[in-house]
């Protein structure tokens, strides 16, 4: 009889879980900034949906509503020197990076909206509307948001299309002798495409400081992640490539922040790429202002459960400012 | 947010309450549509330009492949931004053909042997180019692999500059080998020129001599646009005039070379077909053909001045290339020539291409699938007999 020796992947794969104690211990300034970003992006996205509904946006406006926690939590663990790129659903990724760039010391909505923040929101909105005032003179629109000065290197309309480029940014950072890292945001739909998987391998082989941040929102348009793959814990891809991997609750911006801090330390320490999977949920359909349940591929009940954990909503301070450190939706 | 939105929006005149429209002044001008597909080439201000007739250094007969390795050695020595990547470029004494000979020993951290992942490493190179601090030189071992990396080449690298506003450089160089005639068969033998030049954003160069290779590679490495350098494996072991010690000159962007002057018919060609055309003309001895080696193939860089002057003289055009007809290069050029020079043409633009199928492994079938001297001679004879 042959024997079986259990084998273990060489790279670690962990789920980072936070408790109320972590929230209590978190820096109030950090939480204030997180909250301010969440609210700004949410209000922005609601306005985009309003304009889309009024026919004022040409083409799709893929709403990030519901997914802001992952982008905000992860970007706040970065600096302006770190570069990110993103996906077709990238308003929140772009805004988080741009806002962090113009307000590196943090944001406080209680102090009003600064001119720089206003300018970011205006130019982003103009780009999404296809207008000259936008970052790319309106050529890029909703799916091609780029502001290099902020380290926002471009969102991308090809699923997985931006992933290899982020490895290039990381190579350039390392070759230039900096400790900057790059982060590429993509969804569960992009985890099975060749450019993503090829880049996992290349980045790990060359120990590049790039983070693959997968927003697992469970649906590629209407196809569920459980139909699309056998291992729906998408961070499980990492160990097969020798890549340290984290799974984290994407509805909890502090949890994402802490996971990202670990991933960033790993990358800045020269230990190669990182894979971070944030479990999240888009509240609406692929694009437009209807929920996914209106198209029959998921239930209203499922949507209610996820909405109950919405950090932007459940964390809105009812009466006082600053918000009390409280985990959203638990 | 509504207050920010009001910068861009105004009430719809005559509309219902709450109806809005985009303020007219916020739209980009329609004339902006093609601005910045490629750069304005100001990076060539002050560049050391030279062509065969103006080059002041010493020339000697040289093996093509040695010029390939020599110019990259020289550029990497003077420009620390250059990084070379591709399959086996770091081993085998200069990759599978010797094109990167000597680079790994001298520049170990800038010569990167990649896994077999064309889409990933082409895209990684694209990221380096978009980042802008370094200048990637990506090698595809065979041109057909562009299909494997099609998303990164065509959707990402080629479109990046224009799509993001038209002002940021994408200094990406792709060295793409053309291997027809080597027996590698249907999936390794294409001429990619026709496809590559269909993508706005790229510049495409096709050197046919060691001297041109050095100058065109220098221009490609200086250029702020993505440039594809076609390298025909047939040429690697050929010899021709090449620079002995000055490896720093650039060939001017958009300048073709007249390889043979003639009055009867203009033959427009490029890459390895250039030599086959010259052989055909010499072999016939009866046709006074003017042979133009394009060198720059893309729509923005093609040398209309040289082509036009020749057509006004000969009033007849043959476009000659080796590859399959479906992906061939000359179709758009014939179309463009007929609308630009209709009054100067005595006959429709003629073309020589390979057959419909991809070249097969079998030696006779491969030869039958691609065009060489014999096909050019047949076409020239037919054209001059008709006249």
For the structure shown, list the relevant keywords.
heterodimer, A: 330 residues, alpha/beta, 7-stranded parallel β-sheet, two-stranded antiparallel sheet, 12 helices, 38% helix, globular, B: 387 residues, 6-stranded parallel β-sheet, 5-stranded mixed β-sheet, 13 helices, 15 strands
Q: What is the makeup of the main sheet of chain B?
A: 6 strands, parallel
Got a strand count of chain A? 9
Distance between the termini of chain A: 50 Å
> Helix content range of the residues of chain B, please?
25-40%
Q: How do the strands line up in the largest sheet of chain B? A: 5-4-6-7-9-8
Cα(first) to Cα(last) distance of chain B is 73 Å
- Tell me what portion of residues of chain A adopts beta-strand conformation: 5-15%
The proportion of residues in beta strands of chain B is 15-25%
| Spatial order of strands in the largest sheet of chain A | 1-8-9-5-4-2-3
Taking pLDDT < 50 over at least 5 consecutive residues as the criterion, the unreliable ranges of chain B are none
Number of E-type strands of chain B: 15
| Category by helix and strand content of chain A | alpha/beta
Summarize the model shown:
Chain A is α/β, with parallel strands linked by helices.
Topology, element by element:
The complex is a heterodimer of chains A (330) and B (387).
Chain A: E1 13-16, H1 20-25, H2 28-53, H3 68-75, E2 83-86, H4 91-102, H5 115-128, E3 152-155, H6 163-175, E4 182-187, H7 194-205, E5 210-216, E6 219-220, E7 223-224, H8 225-228, H9 237-240, E8 244-249, H10 253-268, E9 274-279, H11 300-307, H12 311-314
Parallel strand pairs in A: 1-8, 2-3, 2-4, 4-5, 5-9, 8-9
Antiparallel strand pairs in A: 6-7
Chain B: H1 2-8, E1 9-11, E2 20-22, E3 59-63, H2 64-78, E4 82-86, H3 103-106, E5 111-113, H4 118-131, E6 135-140, H5 150-163, E7 173-178, H6 193-196, E8 203-205, H7 210-222, E9 227-232, H8 233-236, E10 239-243, E11 257-260, E12 265-269, H9 273-284, E13 289-293, H10 304-314, E14 317-320, H11 330-341, E15 350-352, H12 363-369, H13 373-386
Parallel strand pairs in B: 4-5, 4-6, 6-7, 7-9, 8-9, 12-13, 12-14, 14-15
Antiparallel strand pairs in B: 1-2, 3-10, 11-13
Helix pairs in contact in B: 2-7, 4-5, 9-13
């Amino acid at each position: 009889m042959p024997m079986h020796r259990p084998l273990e992947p060489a790279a670690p794969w962990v789920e980072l879980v936070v408790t109320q104690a972590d929230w209590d211990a978190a820096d109030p300034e950090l939480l204030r900034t997180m909250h301010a970003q969440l609210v700004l992006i949410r209000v922005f996205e609601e306005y985009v949906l309003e304009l889309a509904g009024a026919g004022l946006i040409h083409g799709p406006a893929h709403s990030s509503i519901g997914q802001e926690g992952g982008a905000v939590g992860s970007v706040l663990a970065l600096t302006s020197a770190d570069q990110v790129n993103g996906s077709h659903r990238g308003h929140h990724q772009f805004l988080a990076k741009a806002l962090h760039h113009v307000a590196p010391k943090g944001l406080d909505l209680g102090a009003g909206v600064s001119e720089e923040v206003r300018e970011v929101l205006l130019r982003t909105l103009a780009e999404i509307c296809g207008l000259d005032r936008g970052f790319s003179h309106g050529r890029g629109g909703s799916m091609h948001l780029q502001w290099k000065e902020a380290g926002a290197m471009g969102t991308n309309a090809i699923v997985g299309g931006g992933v290899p480029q982020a490895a290039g940014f990381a190579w350039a950072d390392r070759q230039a002798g900096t400790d900057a890292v790059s982060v590429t945001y993509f969804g569960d739909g992009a985890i099975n495409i060749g450019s993503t998987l090829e880049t996992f391998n290349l980045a790990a082989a060359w120990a590049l400081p790039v983070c693959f941040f997968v927003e697992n929102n469970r649906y590629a348009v209407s196809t569920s992640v459980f139909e699309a793959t056998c291992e729906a814990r998408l961070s499980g891809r990492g160990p097969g490539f020798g890549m340290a991997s984290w799974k984290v609750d994407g509805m909890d911006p502090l949890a994402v922040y802490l996971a990202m801090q670990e991933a960033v330390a790993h990358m800045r320490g020269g230990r190669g790429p990182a894979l971070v999977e944030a479990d999240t949920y888009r509240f609406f359909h692929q694009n437009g202002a209807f929920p996914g349940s209106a198209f029959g591929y998921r239930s209203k009940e499922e949507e209610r459960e996820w909405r109950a954990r919405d950090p932007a909503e459940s964390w809105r301070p009812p009466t006082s400012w600053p918000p009390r450190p409280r985990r959203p939706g638990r | 947010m509504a207050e920010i939105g009001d910068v861009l929006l105004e009430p719809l005149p005559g509309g219902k309450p709450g109806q809005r429209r985009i303020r007219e002044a916020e739209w980009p001008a329609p004339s902006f549509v093609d601005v910045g597909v490629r750069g304005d080439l100001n990076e060539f201000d002050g560049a050391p330009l030279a062509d065969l007739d103006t080059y002041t250094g010493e020339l000697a007969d040289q093996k093509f492949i040695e010029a390939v390795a020599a110019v990259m050695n020289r550029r990497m020595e003077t420009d620390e931004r250059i990084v070379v990547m591709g399959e086996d470029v770091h081993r085998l004494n200069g990759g599978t053909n010797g094109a990167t000979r000597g680079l790994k020993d001298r520049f170990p951290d800038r010569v990167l042997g990649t896994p077999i992942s064309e889409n990933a490493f082409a895209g990684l190179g694209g990221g380096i180019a978009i980042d802008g601090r370094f200048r990637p030189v990506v090698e595809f071992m065979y041109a057909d692999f562009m299909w494997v990396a099609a998303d990164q080449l065509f959707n990402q690298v080629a479109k990046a500059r224009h799509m993001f506003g038209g002002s940021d450089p994408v200094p990406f160089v792709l060295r793409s080998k053309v291997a027809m005639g080597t027996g590698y068969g249907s999936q390794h033998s294409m001429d990619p020129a026709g496809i590559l030049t269909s993508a706005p954003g790229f510049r495409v160069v096709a050197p046919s001599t060691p001297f041109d290779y050095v100058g065109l590679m220098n221009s490609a490495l200086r250029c702020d646009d993505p440039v594809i350098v076609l390298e025909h494996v047939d040429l690697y072991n050929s010899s021709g005039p090449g620079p002995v010690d000055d490896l720093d000159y650039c060939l001017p962007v958009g300048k073709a070379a007249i390889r043979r002057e003639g009055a009867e018919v203009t033959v427009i060609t490029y890459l390895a077909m250039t030599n086959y055309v010259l052989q055909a003309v010499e072999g016939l001895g009866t046709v006074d053909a003017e042979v133009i080696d394009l060198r720059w193939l893309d729509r923005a860089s093609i040398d209309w001045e040289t082509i036009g002057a020749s057509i006004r003289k000969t009033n007849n055009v043959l476009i000659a290339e080796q590859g399959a007809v479906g992906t061939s290069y000359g179709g758009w050029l014939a179309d463009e020539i007929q609308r630009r020079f209709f009054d100067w043409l005595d006959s429709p633009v003629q073309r020589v291409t390979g057959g419909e199928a991809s070249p097969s492994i079998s030696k006779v079938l491969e030869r039958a699938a691609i065009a060489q001297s014999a096909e050019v001679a047949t076409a020239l004879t037919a054209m001059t007999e008709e006249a």
